[in-house]
Write a structure and sequence with these properties.
- The chain has helices at about 35-45, 60-70, 90-100, 100-105; strands at about 1-10, 15-20, 25-30, 50-55, 80, 85.
- By secondary structure, it is of the alpha+beta class.
- It has a four-stranded mixed beta sheet, with helices on both faces.
- The longest helix is centred in the middle third of the chain and has 12 residues, at about 35-45.
Length: about 110
C-alpha cells in the first residue's frame, strides 16, 4: 500500500505529491543552505541506505508537521527511522558510531 506526502521543492514554492511505499523507513526533514542536512544525507548514502527527503524550507505546513513530529524541535535536519525520532545530524552520527543505527534499522 502507498501513502502520499505533500512536499515543497526549491526556492520557488511548488507543491508536489510524492507517493512512497510503506517500506520506506528513513525520513529526513531538510531545509535551505543546511550543511548538517548534507552531512546526514551523506552518512546515510555512505551506508547505501534509502531515505525520503522532505524539504520544509518554503512550506510552513511541512515545517509544522516536522515540529509536531519532532516534539517541538525546529532545526533541520530532523531524522526519523522506523517512526523513531533520532534527532539531528549529531544524533545520527552518535548512534552510528555506537552501533545502534543497525538496531534501529532492523
Amino acid at each position: 500500500r502507498d501513502f502520499c506526502l505533500s512536499r515543497g521543492l526549491g526556492d520557488v514554492y511548488k507543491r508536489q505529491i510524492i507517493c512512497i511505499e510503506d517500506e520506506m523507513n528513513i525520513i529526513i526533514y531538510t531545509g535551505p543552505m543546511c550543511p548538517y542536512c548534507e552531512k546526514a544525507k551523506a552518512l546515510l548514502q555512505s551506508k547505501s541506505l534509502d531515505y525520503q527527503e522532505i524539504y520544509v524550507g518554503d512550506n510552513p505546513d511541512l515545517m509544522m508537521e516536522m515540529i509536531e513530529k519532532a516534539n517541538g524541535k525546529r532545526s533541520v535536519p530532523q531524522i526519523f527511522i522506523n517512526d523513531t525520532h533520532v534527532g539531528g545530524y549529531d544524533d545520527l552520527y552518535a548512534i552510528d558510531r555506537s552501533g545502534d543505527l543497525e538496531k534501529l534499522l532492523s
